[in-house]
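Anyone up for a design puzzle?
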């Protein structure tokens, strides 16, 4: 990885407070996230991305460069949110990594059919999570070329 890391805007959609805390710690420890935002379900995720409700101000809810998406959430689950994001022209280019406890083949196939960019299972240890977050950072922010998005202000 480069020595001078770019600070990235990452949006995490996960209803589990412990998982959110562990992800926040891992993203902070690896210095990957400069701007880290959390939502707790698919409804809140869509409100954030479409600047609705408490997310109406784009400066306090900036467009993420990467979404980490749990599948099993209340109200609107990750599959429904993924389908909506990838069918919305202004959002479909945002890379989405499904980060879930599910290892079901059906979930893997279905999320790729819906347009997910990566599917990974949540590690069982914090050390495993750190390693995964580092790999995500290397791939999404050091290796691939992402489309530039001009702010919608």
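Challenge accepted. My sequence:
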């Amino acid at each position: 990885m480069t020595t001078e890391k770019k600070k990235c805007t990452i949006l995490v959609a996960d209803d589990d407070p412990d998982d959110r805390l562990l992800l926040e710690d891992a993203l902070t420890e690896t210095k990957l996230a400069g701007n880290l935002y959390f939502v707790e379900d698919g409804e809140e995720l869509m409100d954030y991305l479409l600047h609705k409700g408490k997310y109406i101000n784009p400066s306090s809810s900036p467009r993420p460069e990467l979404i980490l998406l749990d599948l099993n959430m209340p109200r609107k689950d990750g599959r429904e949110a993924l389908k909506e994001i990838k069918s919305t022209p202004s959002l479909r280019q945002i890379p989405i990594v499904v980060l879930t406890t599910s290892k079901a083949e059906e979930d893997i196939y279905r999320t790729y059919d819906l347009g997910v960019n990566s599917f990974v299972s949540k590690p069982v240890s914090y050390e495993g999570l750190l390693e995964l977050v580092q790999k995500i950072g290397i791939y999404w922010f050091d290796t691939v070329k992402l489309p530039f998005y001009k702010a919608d202000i």
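A detail worth pointing out: The chain has one domain: 8-141.
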